[in-house]
Specification:
The protein folds into two domains: about 90 residues, no CATH class; about 170 residues, no CATH class. Helix 3 links the parallel strand 7 and strand 8. The chain is of the alpha+beta class and about 270 residues long. The protein is built from seven helices and 13 strands.
């Protein structure tokens, strides 16, 4: 039962087929099974087109793995989408998954510690070497003495977007500030792979701060480094206000809404 006004949807989120955009990368069945577990336990958030400033409200989620006649594994799902979000399903026509994985250098590493700074970038747009450069720059700047982890991001949509994901602790943000963290990964932004057909397409920078069980995400979408500079120069004040408000509200408060940089008005705003 989807409920009054809720739209029932079903389909395939991801498969074990080779993905050309990621050099033939294939998702193992055990990873598909892990994603199924996260979905069925309610531990996997949903967003429109992998945009963290556009959460997708769903309920009655159910996922399972099914094997095709040719041996390819498919992750199927069924869900109900909120009436106000159903338009996104009509526009994009699919639900897909974003996941991260170690870069080649760390593929055999068993170190899964909770790093204070985590950096991931879409693997079709950003190389392992670009991520290692970001790791080096952060460490040279004295950021991440408690640990820096760099990872590939895989978006299982129709066409992966150029996206960078930064995940930091509240303590690190308070210590060095958002602008210093951005300076540490700025070279990663510059090292985006060149594609003539997408030369002017923006890169999305997702900056998530975690404070215990609470988190807030700020999103900058731009192809201009100067725009990102302005956004991160003013991000500390915006995040301080959101985190302090959520802390005063107690642990039962819902997650803070994501912030989006509005360069026209030189300010951070919640989603409309």
């Amino acid at each position: 039962m989807s409920g009054l006004g809720w739209t029932s949807v079903h389909g395939i989120m991801m498969t074990s087929e080779a993905i050309d955009a990621y050099g033939g990368f294939q998702v193992p069945r055990q990873v598909l099974a892990q994603v199924v577990g996260s979905i069925n336990s309610g531990g996997l958030p949903f967003h429109v087109n992998h945009q963290l400033d556009h959460p997708l409200r769903v309920r009655d989620l159910h996922a399972w793995v099914q094997t095709r006649a040719d041996g390819i594994e498919e992750l199927h799902f069924s869900a109900a989408v909120h009436p106000d979000d159903a338009r996104w399903m009509k526009e994009y026509g699919h639900i897909s998954v974003m996941m991260t994985a170690p870069i080649a250098r760390d593929a055999q590493s068993e170190n899964e510690s909770q790093a204070a700074v985590r950096v991931a970038a879409d693997h079709s747009w950003f190389s392992d070497d670009a991520l290692i450069t970001a790791e080096r720059d952060l460490l040279l700047a004295g950021i991440g003495s408690e640990g820096v982890r760099v990872e590939r991001a895989y978006q299982f949509g129709l066409i992966p977007d150029p996206q960078i994901y930064l995940d930091v602790t509240w303590a690190i943000l308070q210590s060095v500030g958002a602008s210093a963290i951005w300076d540490g990964v700025k070279q990663l932004f510059r090292l985006r792979r060149k594609r003539p057909e997408a030369e002017n397409s923006p890169t999305t920078i997702n900056f998530t701060v975690r404070n215990g069980d609470q988190s807030v995400t700020a999103v900058v979408r731009t192809s201009d480094e100067a725009v990102a500079d302005r956004a991160f120069d003013s991000l500390d004040h915006a995040l301080n206000a959101v985190v302090q408000q959520s802390t005063q509200g107690g642990n039962q408060e819902p997650p803070a809404p994501p912030l989006t940089w509005d360069d026209t008005n030189y300010g951070w705003k919640p989603p409309t």
